[in-house]
């Protein structure tokens, strides 16, 4: 398996490592961090035959799609409201 590596693409620096994951789903996963983003991501499981080129391609495609999704306008949802109590009919006053 190839070791950790770093590359630049589109003005961003990507740092890639593989780590065993202790929680499900278990296995070895590719983790990456981007210079302009404080979050780390682990979108792909490491497989036999991975190359820097194939991993780089998958990571850039994944991250570019993530940026595109973030840039989309927010679609307002309908509010789900619990129905109120039914109106109580007025009781006529006794004479």
How are the SSEs placed, and which strands pair?
Elements: E1 5-9, E2 12-21, E3 27-34, E4 37-45, H1 52-71
Polypeptide structure, described:
The protein is α+β, with helices and mostly antiparallel strands and 95 residues long. The chain has a domain at 5-69. It is 21% helix and 34% strand. It contains 1 helix and 4 strands. The chain has a 4-stranded antiparallel β-sheet with strand order 1-2-3-4, with helices on one face. A hairpin with a 2-residue loop joins β3 (27-34) and β4 (37-45). The longest helix is centred in the middle third of the chain and has 20 residues, at 52-71. The chain is elongated, with a radius of gyration of 26 Å. The termini are far apart. The model has no long low-confidence stretch (mean pLDDT 88).
* SSE pattern: EEEEH
What best-fitting shape do the alpha-carbon axes yield? elongated
- What is the C-alpha radius of gyration, as a whole number of Å? 26 Å
User: Terminal Cα separation, in Å?
Assistant: 93 Å
**Strand residue percentage:** 25-35%
Helical content class: 10-25%
Mean pLDDT: 88
Number of strands: 4
Strand order in the sheet with the most strands = 1-2-3-4
- Treating each run of at least 4 consecutive H or I residues as one helix, how many helices? 1
- Which structural class is indicated by helix and strand composition? alpha+beta
């Amino acid at each position: 398996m190839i070791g950790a590596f770093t590359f630049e693409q589109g003005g961003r620096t990507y740092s890639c490592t593989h780590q065993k994951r202790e929680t499900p789903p278990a296995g070895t996963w590719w983790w990456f961090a981007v210079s302009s983003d404080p979050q780390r991501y682990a979108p792909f499981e490491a497989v036999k035959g991975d190359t820097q080129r194939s991993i780089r391609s998958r990571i850039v495609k994944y991250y570019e799609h993530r940026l595109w999704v973030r840039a989309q306008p927010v679609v307002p949802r309908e509010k789900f409201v619990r129905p109120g109590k039914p109106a109580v009919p007025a009781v006529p006053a006794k004479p």
